[in-house]
Amino acid sequence: MKEKDIVKHLQLLRSVEPDVSAKRALHKKVLSRITVKEKSFGFFGRLFVSPLLAIELLTAVLIFFVVVSGLLTSFSERAIVDFKIAAASNQYEKAKIALAYLYSQITNTQNKSLDNKKFQSLSYALTLSNTQMSELKLVGEKGKYTSQQCLELYESYHEDLQKIDATPAQTLLGPQVKQDEKQSEKKLEMYDKKYHPVAE
Amino acid sequence: MEEKLFNDVYRRFVVGIFRYVYFKVSDYETANDLTADIFTKFWKLLKKETVANNKALLYEIARGIVIDYYRKKKNRKNISLEEIDERLLGTLDKSENNLETKQEINRIVLQLKKIKKEYQEVIILYYIEELTISEISFIFHKTENNTRVILHRALKALKKLL
Fold first, then answer.
1. Which among A15, A133, B52, B140 has most CB atoms closer than 10 A?
2. Bridge partner list, A164
3. Residue B101 sits in a domain of what CATH number?
């Protein structure tokens, strides 16, 4: 037999190969061995080997950041409002800032469903507005604000309180809102007596 | 990165490695186990260092693992290859032509088994697994010229038997 023929015959041996099921079983065996070895690679090593684990971790980190940033947003919002109030020149300005914050929180609650974060913010805005409004001098302060400006602010405050009744927060904040409404109504009655003594 | 490379190397060479090991150990189950060992070892190496020639390294590992296997079982009797395991001839159907091919394959393997082990190996690697002279010399830790001489002598030895 010539060398060329021998080589041809030898090449026949290339058709010797395991069947599909054997190949599959072998693949499984190799994969299982490699996976077992990976356990010794440590946590970060496994992240590179298992993309699923990396995706799960990334999702958890994202959720954490969304929650934390959400909390931080509401905290930072409150801090900004507190800072603005502290820096305001008179009580009328302070009350105006508190009312603007209350209005934004009511709008926020009306537009979207109520969650714990929004509820906390609305409750805080309500307390803040009540505090700032109750410190207003109804007769005004000379050179700072007039009695008429106070009346307008109280009317706006009263409207806002009534709006809360139409939000889902009403069930939880109902008693507080009712109490604040009573207080503002009393103040408005006082204005009525002052500006419309004939009607009385 | 290593995973992609490993999968690629596995897909390309698993059949060849299995065949090489089977010709060396003559037992289907043992070839299966050793092939898994070879790829596990290759994966470990891949994680540690950059590999210049995957194919050559894989066959070098295979050679080492087969040598280890024989070292461990030195007290046991070697299995002689009478006939290729049917599970390895699945690609050939049962037609008459293929029956002849199967007989021819068995005849060549039987004769191949009769020549020196080093000759068997160099023939399998060069003519069946299509490794280059340079790759074989890397596996054998010999010079390329030396490898060429061995291959020439191996073919001559087989020619006498066929």
1. A133
2. none
3. 1.10.10.10
Pair B13, B75 in one domain: yes
Return the pLDDT at A200. Answer: 41
Position B45 in a domain = yes
In terms of domains, do B2 and B67 share one? yes
Closest by alpha carbon to B19, among A12, A21, A6?
Answer: A12
| B88: in domain | no
Distance of CA A96 to the CA centre of its chain: 25
B36 or A175: which leads in pLDDT: B36
Say whether pLDDT at A49 is over 60: no
Among all chains, which residue has been given the structure tokens 């604040």? Answer: A180
- Highest-confidence range of A55-64, A179-188, B5-14, B74-83, by mean pLDDT? B5-14
User: Which of A16, A31, A41 is the best residue to mutate to test the B interface, defined by the most B CB atoms within 10 Å of its own CB?
Assistant: A16
Are residue B107 and residue B72 in the same domain, yes or no?
no
Residues B42 and B106 in one domain: no
Whether B84 is covered by a domain: the verdict is no
**Burial of residue B62, with CB atoms counted within 10 A of its CB: 0-12 exposed, 13-18 middle, 19 or more buried:** buried
* Percent of chain A predicted with pLDDT > 70: 82
Candidates A1, A8, A9, A10, partner chain B, best to mutate (most B CBs within 10 A): A10
Q: What is the pLDDT of residues A90-144, one digit of tens each?
A: 888 898 899 898 888 888 777 666 677 777 888 888 888 888 888 888 788 888 8
CA distance B7 to chain A (A): 10
CATH of the domain at B36: 1.10.1740
Question: By the CB < 8 Å criterion, does A36 face chain B?
Answer: no
- Structural domain boundaries, residue B33: 1-79
Q: Is the predicted ipTM greater than 0.85, yes or no? A: no
The whole-angstrom distance between B83's CA and the closest CA on chain A is 12
Question: What are the pLDDT digits (tens) for B76-120?
Answer: 555 556 667 777 776 666 555 677 777 888 888 888 888 998 999
Domain boundaries along the sequence of chain A: 76-195
CA distance A6 to A20: 29
Angle at A70 between CA A67 and CA A71, to 5 degrees: 90
User: Closest partner residue to A12 among B15, B36, B101, by Cβ?
Assistant: B101
User: Is B109 in the same domain as B148?
Assistant: yes
Note the pLDDT of residue A199: 46
